[in-house]
Design brief:
CATH architecture: Beta Barrel
Number of strands: 12
CATH topology: Porin
Largest sheet: 12 strands, antiparallel
Order of helices and strands: HEEEEEEEEEEEE
Number of domains: 1
CATH class: Mainly Beta
């Protein structure tokens, strides 16, 4: 067991040393944009509507000369759910931390990129809300996680504009009782229009 641990540690250190030697560029930046979120219910009992919010926060991007790397961010992100109409959205604020594998293709003037990776989110506000006509208590979970998929374009190695689709893998909301159904779990999906300014 000790031999395997030592071997794993040695391989890990070799990979880390090799990766640091091929790192091409590290950029810090600001990321922001529009969130269009919707929900998936475990029971098909309600019609849901899209909810519009936003996200904003610092970002880091690390790329190799081969055009592969990763980016990560710490975002204030506003998402929500709505089963009554656009004027009655249930909004929730999150601290969202995405980490994405990234590939870029193109010339220095303009490049296309694709991203994929996990995200975690911690609820900042919007723990409990009540809709009188539904007569149920909807609780927002304190923690969530999911998967990001994105595409976009980069101009002059400084400005990035893209689309990101977030798939919730954990339940974002829970409802004790609704229309005769109990223990309903709700996952969120979010389409985001993003813009990044790199320094």
């Amino acid at each position: 067991m000790k031999k395997r641990s030592k071997l794993f540690f040695c391989v890990f250190m070799i990979i880390m040393l090799a990766s640091t030697s091929v790192i091409g560029q590290i950029h810090l930046g600001i990321k922001g944009g529009l969130n269009i979120s919707s929900i998936n219910l475990s029971e098909d009992i309600l019609k849901s509507y899209n909810v519009t919010g936003f996200h904003l926060g610092p970002m880091i991007e690390v790329m190799t000369p081969l055009g592969i790397g990763f980016d990560g961010a710490i975002l204030y992100s506003q998402k929500g759910m709505d089963v009554k109409g656009p004027e009655d959205a249930l909004m929730t604020d999150y601290l969202e931390i995405p980490v994405n594998f990234k590939v870029k293709l193109g010339v220095p003037l303009i490049k296309a990129y694709a991203t994929a990776g996990p995200f975690a989110e911690i609820r900042l506000s919007g723990a409990e809300n009540k809709w009188e006509r539904i007569q149920s208590q909807i609780k927002t979970k304190a923690f969530g996680a999911g998967l990001n998929l994105g595409i976009g374009a980069e101009v002059l190695s400084r400005i990035q504009v893209g689309l990101n689709y977030s798939i919730g893998l954990t339940d974002n909301y829970a409802v004790d009782q609704l229309n005769g159904h109990s223990d309903i779990n709700i996952k969120s999906t979010t389409l985001s229009i993003t813009a990044v300014l790199l320094f």
